[in-house]
Amino acid sequence: MTHQTPEAYIHDVAAAAANRSHNEPEFLQAMSEVLDTLVPVLQEHPEFVDAAVLERLVEPERQILFRVPWLDDNNKVQVNRGFRVQFNSALGPFKGGLRFHPSVNLSVIKFLGFEQIFKNALTRQRIGGAKGGSDFDPHGKSDEEVMRFCQSFMNELYRYIDEQTDVPAGDIGVGAREIGYLFGQYRRITGRHESGVLTGKGKVWGGAEVRTQATGYGTVCFAQEMLNRTGEDIEGRRALVSGSGNVAIYAIEKITQLGGIPVTASDSSGYIVDEQGIDVELLRQI
Amino acid sequence: MTHQTPEAYIHDVAAAAANRSHNEPEFLQAMSEVLDTLVPVLQEHPEFVDAAVLERLVEPERQILFRVPWLDDNNKVQVNRGFRVQFNSALGPFKGGLRFHPSVNLSVIKFLGFEQIFKNALTRQRIGGAKGGSDFDPHGKSDEEVMRFCQSFMNELYRYIDEQTDVPAGDIGVGAREIGYLFGQYRRITGRHESGVLTGKGKVWGGAEVRTQATGYGTVCFAQEMLNRTGEDIEGRRALVSGSGNVAIYAIEKITQLGGIPVTASDSSGYIVDEQGIDVELLRQI
Amino acid sequence: MTHQTPEAYIHDVAAAAANRSHNEPEFLQAMSEVLDTLVPVLQEHPEFVDAAVLERLVEPERQILFRVPWLDDNNKVQVNRGFRVQFNSALGPFKGGLRFHPSVNLSVIKFLGFEQIFKNALTRQRIGGAKGGSDFDPHGKSDEEVMRFCQSFMNELYRYIDEQTDVPAGDIGVGAREIGYLFGQYRRITGRHESGVLTGKGKVWGGAEVRTQATGYGTVCFAQEMLNRTGEDIEGRRALVSGSGNVAIYAIEKITQLGGIPVTASDSSGYIVDEQGIDVELLRQI
Amino acid sequence: MTHQTPEAYIHDVAAAAANRSHNEPEFLQAMSEVLDTLVPVLQEHPEFVDAAVLERLVEPERQILFRVPWLDDNNKVQVNRGFRVQFNSALGPFKGGLRFHPSVNLSVIKFLGFEQIFKNALTRQRIGGAKGGSDFDPHGKSDEEVMRFCQSFMNELYRYIDEQTDVPAGDIGVGAREIGYLFGQYRRITGRHESGVLTGKGKVWGGAEVRTQATGYGTVCFAQEMLNRTGEDIEGRRALVSGSGNVAIYAIEKITQLGGIPVTASDSSGYIVDEQGIDVELLRQI
Amino acid sequence: MTHQTPEAYIHDVAAAAANRSHNEPEFLQAMSEVLDTLVPVLQEHPEFVDAAVLERLVEPERQILFRVPWLDDNNKVQVNRGFRVQFNSALGPFKGGLRFHPSVNLSVIKFLGFEQIFKNALTRQRIGGAKGGSDFDPHGKSDEEVMRFCQSFMNELYRYIDEQTDVPAGDIGVGAREIGYLFGQYRRITGRHESGVLTGKGKVWGGAEVRTQATGYGTVCFAQEMLNRTGEDIEGRRALVSGSGNVAIYAIEKITQLGGIPVTASDSSGYIVDEQGIDVELLRQI
Amino acid sequence: MTHQTPEAYIHDVAAAAANRSHNEPEFLQAMSEVLDTLVPVLQEHPEFVDAAVLERLVEPERQILFRVPWLDDNNKVQVNRGFRVQFNSALGPFKGGLRFHPSVNLSVIKFLGFEQIFKNALTRQRIGGAKGGSDFDPHGKSDEEVMRFCQSFMNELYRYIDEQTDVPAGDIGVGAREIGYLFGQYRRITGRHESGVLTGKGKVWGGAEVRTQATGYGTVCFAQEMLNRTGEDIEGRRALVSGSGNVAIYAIEKITQLGGIPVTASDSSGYIVDEQGIDVELLRQI
Fold first, then answer.
1. How far apart are CA A64 and CA E33, in angstroms?
2. Which residues contact A8 (CB under 8 A, 6 or more apart)?
């Protein structure tokens, strides 16, 4: 088998990917930034070189682009392009947001989907990475135009998703309104009220709060792993957290679970310091 | 509704497509060449402008790209990219070849798929246009490597094809051997021996001869349409056909059916002339 | 087993059906008119009484009613009811028209579906009887409103139909335009370009002429059966046909096939008489 | 958009529904009783008028009627009619009982299904409303006749149900025996041992106790909502509960959870009063 | 690769199969009789040895055994075993009869399925080989018992068959009655009236005459192949056919097509000789 | 109905099974050993005799045998036989291991599957009994050969399994490596990352620890049932447990839950005695 050095291996993988995806600058930049950090991992795990792990990591499992025709309020047909890049499902079902914005193209979606693999892995929940969306611009559209676009988008997307295959969520341009229209059409076509197939639904008709903790937990897990590398631990350490939204609250919660002492939190109007460690429940009430 | 001139409409459609697919030079060239010829059609059918027919024509209904991992004879994992562009099914199920060649990329497949729409429409059979393939190079590979690649390729492709959805065929790098491996895996996974899901199979295990006449017939139908425009007809006219393969033979057959008189045929070693009209059956025997 | 007389059996079946469907006057009238004619059949086949054939004949195999919400041109939600009564498939896949008209209700659809069983059986093609539609009124609606209604209607109907299950066709209020919108949505959702799932499509995008002969053939087959009962035959007999549309033409064709001599045809402006038997090909050209 | 008063809007909706379902007296009565109570809701939420919420609420999403042939113990074919009205799934998968009783018809099933929407909504669990059954009378039938009827009923029903689509349960005439036969045939056909597709199964082969609390919880949630309207709360209040079955026990449990003091319970032989609040665990043991 | 002699290769394959299926004497005998005749084939095609064709030929692609519970007329549960051996589908969908007889076991079904591969191949139609059935004995059972058995049998079998996967037919104990019950239940469960999924249905409800010519044609094709081996041909030769049933008639037809002269036919009461060649149409009328 | 004695009934059932499966000695021995212990059960429940429960228990619901072709490292085709015996799902989805070993044949798999019914039932979790595997020998094969075998095996098996149908696990010759290859191919074909479809996966990519307690719990539940028979109970009793692996630890845990006092545990190097009852958490740390 191969006896390449990690550096040479990474170079070869990056070069092959750059050749195959030469017209996707956003993706290529994200990919090479990640690859460059992996030298220590490959030094520790030379079997990853033999197993061609990186070649498989940089190539999405499945990329789907589709035509989305819809009627505007003047009954004129408009045409957009829809995307779903199911990048990697080694750890679990694909999961990642949908973005509706004129800047969306395949390179952008691949770049975001590639990063989603690592974001999701850091949560230590069993979820893979994906991203999707459209170059449709919801800005300035009527509710009914957005609805008709979303229904047409889902007429195609429904084939590729379900709770154990791929779980889209919201992102820029896709809020509770859009998720509602998307889920409604999914339910209409499949007949299934799968509570988990789309996340971000308004709570009144079945939205789940599951996984809102993902980013906050992920941040702390990442720090824990970093400390472990040098023989250290979060346990007993004091931690400075900035912010007081979902990310900060769940970071504080996880720090506490791991025996750390979160001593600060902040918002736009000030900050709090508690040397004994901030009480999450108390923080939530504020 | 809109009152654009055909020229302005075509310009707008081409500009929007160029913006959306700016990194696909092969496709953009094929598209603009076709669009430029459509001015007379739009003059005759201004309702095509109102109905936004061209916007829909230049955007594929579905583009699927997928990872194809396979083991080479040294048990090393190799990774290629697979493609299937289902461009337009307004007239019937998608149909178009699979190309296995290092030059394959999304722009090339879209270009070929776009042209396939028109080629298939000219046959007057009810078939839509599609194209697919991979940047895999069968050249220099062992039979078993090709087999393992084809099986892995079909592990993904099988979801998107069946007799009434999409019917792939061979093309460069995809001959009877490859179609055989692909069909074998299709049958293994789906359990179905669909005789029509792949064309180009060797005759010994179910290959059909259907549609080998497509190109020859299409050529003559096209000429017939051209003549009709100027009030003329193939009937009674003498036609010069060059070549003597499948295309030529079926062109001669169709010319005869339409009342024309095919007076020549040729191959690399000479030609024949028969002022009474060439007898197809006779030609076949030669 | 039972030893009921045919009359008593028919009375019991009709009474039970009247009780079960007491609020469906159109259906009950059609049913009792048919049942009353069946006494001779049951006298000849007393085993039909033992096998409870009539109880099964008067109860549809499946009746589906569904909500059809759609947006009018003012973006206001409208709600209609859709119907599909799959009455009997003993002889083949269900087949029968879709009617869009304000007078449509379950009783009307059942009445039409019940009659369709016999109409279809008389063609001697292997097709069962069905009927469907909606109380939607296409009259006075814009093309886009009709399109949105048809798409919503098909979002539900697609589950229940395919070439070997149920084959809807047009009827009052459902012409080539509606069939086109319905088929488009069927293809969008299922991905399948099933040429046979809907009949009545405009020819330009796949409409088939198959079965246009059904009513004309059926009429003559019926007459043939009647004559056979009394030991007579169509062969050698002269037949008077009125009309000159599809029904008349195919009746004349079938009469000729069976050895009869069709001597008349007519339209709103006159009639023709040919004692030698009318030539169908000639008639078609007129 | 519309500026109707709530009263006028409700009147129009009721009139349209009465026209569409004029032969369903039980359903129409239930509908108009509910609609009349909704004036305050519409005054608070005029957007419900614009959004045509009530038109959609009074029309079932899907109504399925089907023929159920079965053999009695004399090997004579009997025919019944089966029903499933999937009324509304806005909040979650359809859920509602199956009733086997000679009085069952479409009007009765629609009336029960309509009420089920609200009963299920009050539980605050995410479940929609449905109802089904047959005019089959299990009374006086042998076990094997009931089994054969249930198997034939499920041969059709299985298409429309699964854990995330529609979850039938027992009702009049459908107890553990019938649910057992129904589930057995569901498993036979689908191959799936979905523990949640039918509720009410005997515990020995997989019956779940989930949702037995629904009615009791719903009652208290309803009272809570009523009190909230007038600025009051269950917390701290004493509550009189009559009965001591499942409904009463779970009502007492929920009252306690909300801080109320359930002071009575009763059964056919007497009652208990405990001014300190009844202990549910104690009550269960009695 | 291997350089075994045909004899050694056949010996090894037979030994391995005998080891794997040591308790199946009927199958082993059929297999070894066939293998022994293949020496000349392997001498001509040594690549069949390298490709391990025989190892694959002697092992069925799929063998399914299943429990068939049913109620007898005393409402007592009876249990039988059902079988379907899908032996080889290299040439086309599986096809082969169902046998209901107490002697049925896995060895017998494999033996029959193995022979069916070759019988079907000889017809030169694209069909693979299969066989199935049950140790159920229809002899002495009431119609209703047979019906309940057949319905239970199909409750399992329906998963494994359709027109392009596997097409069962009748055999011993499975006539038009049984095929009717089987097809009825297939249609009930799948909702599809697939005219081709079962052959041998009574003509009145959709039975096809297709393939009744298989055995007669196969016999002549086999003789033709034999003659070709020695440089001879059927053309111009006189042929003696015994019998006058379907096999004989289609043999005579095929002989005529190939230019041979069928000079005899016979039945239990005599024979005919026509030195000019028997006219099939004439024979049919007799 | 029947009035057989339990002994006579068991004799008849065993004789019929022996006749039907006469060439399966391993299965027959396991079956008769179990049946002989059931006399007291049948004395208590004579309705089991009338309901023909044992006839159904000894016949597997479904037995699937399939050809598994694969390429060895010399690119030579090898052929093995795969098995899945889905023995009984009365209590829940099928569950049971896969064994890859040259000794595997149908009799062995049936014997193991039969015992699995009872093992699984004793856990009181809702799971049925199954077993499967192949006569493939992973011993001496390269990783890639094992991978190719596993992928080919799953190309067939995937049809028969999912979380609510059948849940295979490891057994002899099927460890984390094989489960990984099997799950990878399952996910590739179905697109679903069903965390529960295969148990025994390595934890890093989604392996669940669920049900590792099954055997230990089952053992204690069995003892509890035995004691109940004689009016005794585990509560308050001292129990001697030998071993200190998963089985022992969960047995100790369950004993404690039921109020018993586990006083011993052991491993190959010694034992511990604690008259107060062993603390499971303490034991785990050791």
1. 53
2. none
Label residue A136 by pLDDT band (50, 70, 90): very high
Q: Distance between CA B107 and CA B85 in Å, rounded?
A: 10
For C80, the enclosing helix (H) or strand (E) is strand C77-88
> Which stretch of DSSP H or E encloses residue A181?
helix A176-190
Q: Which amino acid is at F109?
A: I
Tokens of A218: 């992920």
pLDDT for A212 beyond 70: no
Phi and psi at residue D204, to the nearest 5° = -65, -30
Residue C217: pLDDT above 60? yes
CB F214 within 8 A of CB F181: no
Give the H/E segment covering residue F65: strand F62-71
- Distance, CA of B261 to CA of D208 (rounded, Å): 80
Give the pLDDT band (50/70/90) at residue C211: low
Residue E161 Cα, gap to closest chain B Cα (Å): 9
CB F135 within 8 A of CB F63: no
Query: Which parts of B84-213 fold into alpha helices (H)?
Result: 106-122, 143-157, 176-190
- Do D34 and D114 contact (CB within 8 A), yes or no? yes
D79 → closest Cβ in C59, C74, C76 = C59
* Cα angle, residue F231 at apex, residues F229 and F232 outer, rounded to 5°: 100
Distance of CA F217 to the CA centre of its chain: 14
Higher pLDDT, C59 or A205: C59
Residue E210 has pLDDT above 80, yes or no: no
A–B contact (≥3 CB pairs within 8 Å)?
A: yes
Spans of chain D, pLDDT less than 70: 1-3, 200-212, 286
Touching chains, B (3+ CB pairs < 8 A): A, C, E, F
F87 token code pair: 């023995």
Query: Across the A/B interface, how many CB contacts are shorter than 8 Å?
Result: 74
Provide the strand spans (E) within chain C: 62-71, 77-88, 94-100, 129-134, 166-169, 238-240, 261-267, 270-273
**3-state DSSP assignment of residue D17:** helix
Residue in A closest to B82 by C-alpha: A62
**Contact: B73, F71; criterion CB under 8 Å:** no
Helix (H), strand (E) at residue F272: strand F270-273
Which of F73, F148, F155 minimises the CB distance to B189?
F155
What pTM did the predictor assign? 0.87
The series of mean pLDDT values per 10 residues for chain F, 286 residues long, is 81 95 95 94 92 95 98 96 97 96 97 95 89 97 98 98 94 94 96 84 45 75 82 86 83 87 82 83 75
Question: pLDDT tens for residues A148-172?
Answer: 999 999 999 999 999 999 999 999 9
- Residue B70 has what pLDDT? 97
Identify whether the C-beta of residue A69 lies closer than 8 Å to the C-beta of residue A79. Answer: yes
Per the rule left: phi > 0, alpha: psi between -120 and 50, beta: everything else, D121 is alpha
Chain B, residues 80-99, CB within 8 A of chain A, namely 81
Are C193 and B162 in contact (CB < 8 Å)?
no
Confidence label for B202 from pLDDT (cuts 50, 70 and 90): low
Mean pLDDT computed over C155-163? 96
* Chain pair E-F, CB pairs under 8 angstroms: 73
C-alpha triplet F158, F162, F167: angle, nearest 5°: 95
**Range list of β-strands (E), chain A:** 62-71, 77-88, 94-100, 128-134, 166-169, 238-240, 261-267, 270-273
**Nearest-10 Cα torsion for A200, A205, A209, A214:** -20
Q: Decide if D131 is catalytic.
A: yes
Q: What is the mean pLDDT of residues A96-111?
A: 97
F279 three-class SS: coil
Considering CB atoms only, which of D60, D64, D156 is closest to C67? D60
- Tell me whether residues C165 and E195 touch, CB distance under 8 A: no
Task: Examine chains A and E and say if they touch (3+ CB pairs below 8 A).
Answer: no
